[in-house]
Amino acid sequence: MTSMINRAGLSIDERLATFLETQVLTPLGRDADAFWDGFAALLADFVPRNRALLAKRIELQSQIDDWHIDHSGKPHDAAAYRTFLENIGYLVPEPGDFQIGTKNVDPEIATMAGPQLVVPILNARFLLNAANARWGSLYDAFYGTDALDAPPAKAGGYDKARGDAVIARGREFLDAALPLVDQSWADLADKDDGTLQDESQWVGFTDKGLLFQNNGLHIEVVFDRNTPVGADDKAGIADIMLESALTTIADCEDSVAAVDAEDKLLAYTNWLGIIRGDLEESFEKGGKTLTRQLNGDKAYKTSAGEACSLSGRSLMFVRNVGHLMTNPAIRHADGDEIPEGIMDAVFTSAISTIDVEGHAKYGNSKAGSIYIVKPKMHGPEECAFTNDLFDAVEDLLGLPRHTIKVGVMDEERRTSANLGACIHAVKDRIVFINTGFLDRTGDEIHTSMQAGPMMRKGAMKGSDWLLAYEARNVAIGLKHGLSGVAQIGKGMWAAPDLMGQMMTDKIGHLRAGANTAWVPSPTAATLHALHYHQENVFEIQKSLPQPAGLDALLNIPLAENTNWPEDELREELDNNCQGLLGYVVRWVDAGVGCSKVPDINDVGLMEDRATLRISSQHIANWLLHGIVSEDQVMDSLNRMAAKVDAQNAGDSTYIPLIGNEDAPAFSAAKDLIFKGVEQPSGYTEPLLHHWRKVKKAG
Ligand SMILES: CC(=O)SCCNC(=O)CCNC(=O)[C@H](O)C(C)(C)COP(=O)(O)OP(=O)(O)OC[C@H]1O[C@@H](n2cnc3c(N)ncnc32)[C@H](O)[C@@H]1OP(=O)(O)O
Ligand SMILES: O=CC(=O)O
Ligand SMILES: [Mg+2]
């Protein structure tokens, strides 16, 4: 039973209050009473503003819905539609010329280009792994994935044929990134052999190897004849270690299921462990108990013998939740829950203050900044709210102005359409814009829900709005001076097992001008790092083509022809239902917020709340416009539930969907579809939280 205590008129979960007071405020030397008084005053200022912003979302959406209903059956008049959006204040005037003024940004964000890893904050094992993913073994990444074009490894220990292919591919990489004079890396006899074409690429000696640099990223060639691989290798090379995830986002948002004080406490405790540097997790793997901790720095010596080090850990961001949800962990005197986004801003900043005030074992930001990713903001007013909130949090914690930096997810249509103004609203603290195309697709469907039936989900990827969105984001970021100061980032690779395809496709993100892009795992980070050796993003950014304009962005992805054959309809529905059920059942029953779920072609896809938003909104749209019937949806849900049950048969804790159709998981799935049209912005959080709480209570 949760015990609540009173602090400055707020009712706070006792465990959470004790955590903050003893683990955070005391080590920081902050007075708890003054803190809670300040927190209550901050809430008094910001809660009404937060509510007003949510009300404005609803008002705008209802005006857009009405416009489409009024214009139904007529050809879409793009000019009239744009004027209408201007008239209702959905589109606002451009802010004109300005450059962002962010200061004290770490080089991993400002001047380096490389992968960005995202990790669910509630999973300490993964979180530690992610923080340590600054360095990754290229040999392991090739050996274990389809990024290597060679026959798969045979079971039963080390497969030498595959190992040889890995080594050959590794040499190819070294020849391209660190070319030698008149020689290939494959010809080297030992560590002292060979001369670099560009000798400035050599950085120094590590414990067992040589350290190099290319396009700002480090490469350690490990020479060790005492390992099986090194012993067999002509030059004694045992591995190639790549600087991989330059930055990592510890996610409190779409990849976690956090619905109450217990869950929020775990999130904040894990963040504290990462910041303080003492997070530790023990787990069983391969029949052994392993204990994982944060890695230390990588020591090396320069040719002159000077001792230096490189960070052994990824630079950490924390993603707060957006402005929508509230959480029962803290309530006002009248019993109302406080906004979770405000709670996250205050708690994660307070914890990060331990870093910027120098109490951490390793230290995260050497520049003295706190990096927060803010998702799902709709337009400049909501960005301005975040900016003011972060000002207030800085005042509450006694931090210098703009210590708290913000990464703006460009993932709602009103933000994409007014991106310059959004950047302007946070111009002195912005450290990234990132195209969260998954949420953005969900919002695209929801915003134009009443306009007509949408094209198939797969076709959306090539649609006008999406291409315009991606290109405009980069162009607007460059126009306002993000290059060299902040990241221009691109979205998630959502097929964690298709690394070969990632190697082909994801280099496109760099060629589009992004200096970072999201990856789902440390292995993907190491492989994606190869792209940054291949292309120099900062050079690419100097000569990008002019992007499409706002009209292309506002082009609604309606289906041109809705006469889909039965088998295509069924395939679309089944695919959406399978992903939706496979994700929701783990969210509601097991509290897992990010899962790898097989699609109908048995390709494991990363599913999180944003992909759920797409599938649920897509089905809701087709239902609304009569493309599919309620019976067809139920038929698909039932057939796919059986499939999802079979996929989870090996999990002894799994509760089947079939036979439990009225239980929380299946109920959540049905609600997400059948109540999809009325969900705010098509978000899945309200229903997921509701049904998870029912499950937890149950
Ligand atoms: C739209 C958006 O908002 S995208 C952002 C949200 N999405 C994410 O954060 C994706 C994060 N990724 C993940 O959660 C996972 O990779 C999943 C769910 C996609 C797949 O998970 P699994 O099926 O367990 O992965 P798999 O079995 O292939 O690999 C597990 C191993 O990889 C590691 N791993 C996988 N993903 C990550 C990660 N993101 N960070 C750190 N380590 C990871 C695990 O630690 C584990 O290694 P270990 O046994 O040594 O601990
Ligand atoms: O948060 C990322 C997205 O694609 O949505
Ligand atoms: Mg998102």
From TrEMBL:
Cofactor dependence: Mg(2+)
Coiled coil: none
Catalytic reaction annotation: glyoxylate + acetyl-CoA + H2O = (S)-malate + CoA + H(+)
Active site feature: 319, 608
Database matches in InterPro entries: Malate_synth_C_sf, Malate_synth_sf, Malate_synthase_TIM, Malate_synthG, MS_C, MS_N, MS_N_TIM-barrel_dom, MSG_insertion
SUPFAM superfamilies: Malate synthase G (SSF51645)
Residues that bind Mg(2+): 411, 439
Keyword terms of this UniProt record: Acyltransferase, Cytoplasm, Glyoxylate bypass, Magnesium, Metal-binding, Oxidation, Transferase, Tricarboxylic acid cycle
Pathway: Carbohydrate metabolism; glyoxylate cycle; (S)-malate from isocitrate: step 2/2
Malate synthase N-terminal domain sequence ranges: 18-74
Positions annotated to bind acetyl-CoA: 118, 125-126, 255, 292, 520
Residue spans crossing the bilayer: none
Modified residue annotations for Cysteine sulfenic acid (-SOH): 594
Free-text function comment from the UniProt entry: Involved in the glycolate utilization. Catalyzes the condensation and subsequent hydrolysis of acetyl-coenzyme A (acetyl-CoA) and glyoxylate to form malate and CoA.
Protein name, as recorded: Malate synthase G
Gene responsible for this protein: glcB
